[in-house]
Amino acid sequence: MMVILDGKETAKKLKEELNKKLSCYYEGGNKKCKLKILMVGNNPASEVYVRNKSKACEAVGIEDELIRLDENISQSKLEEKVLSLANDESVHGILIQLPLPKHLDEDAVTELVPPEKDVDGFTTKSLGLLAVGKDGFLSCTPGGIVYMLKNYGIPLAGKHAVVIGRSKIVGKPMALALLNENCTVTACHSKTENLKEITRTADILIAAVGRPLFVTADMVKDGAVVVDVGINRTDDGLKGDVDFDAVADKCSYITPVPGGVGPMTVAYLMNNTVTAYERSLKN
Length: 283
Hints:
Blueprint: E1 3-4, H1 7-27, E2 34-40, H2 44-60, E3 63-69, H3 75-86, E4 93-96, H4 106-110, H5 124-131, H6 140-151, E5 160-164, H7 171-180, E6 184-188, H8 195-199, E7 204-207, E8 224-228, E9 232-234, E10 237-239, H9 244-247, E11 251-254, H10 261-282
Parallel strand pairs: 1-11, 2-3, 2-4, 5-6, 5-7, 7-8, 8-11
Antiparallel strand pairs: 9-10
């Protein structure tokens, strides 16, 4: 029987766990957990994402501040702002809302966030720590997916996981995260030959290609766990990377779009922020 992996309910559970944890720290007289969100300009999509993050912070008990910067800010002024937050001991997490305007170098700005405050898990150092199995921050989409799979009691160790997509935000960290959970991992991408043959061997299939309805029924083996990372706006509304209607009957578990991976991404950002806070208390 196929089970739909409910990202909304799982995210709610994670946020409740984090709220209880922070409440205990606050009752013990500890300082507040603080997240600073830097936003350059007023991209409408970014406004929505920032609101969602702020609501999640409120639910968890994180004190968040949105720092709005002019869309014409210079590279040096933006870097100066990031460095001031990096050196502020009262700040536990720094989030740079992407995309930045085209005249700014996103990578250069992001790399200024120290790994202990990189709650998005986007920096080279965070990815490097993940690669060697150290305590870096896993980026939020892969982190949320691993949490959700474990929450549903889906075994990971020894399973063959296939990740389609190799972005530095999802594909690569997803493959590393599953490797750290003792999966046998195959990473696929646009140059992969015999893709269908590979995906049909997957116990766990992660689709993160950014192409609507890319994964079809003949790419999935019976009983597989299918996780759809895609959010594609089409004339027919939001569609994932997986043809849900065609694939669902073959799966043991599958995520819907929307309501699957999306809520988990925001919830895992909260998880990383609370972890950064806890580590700062220990130090």
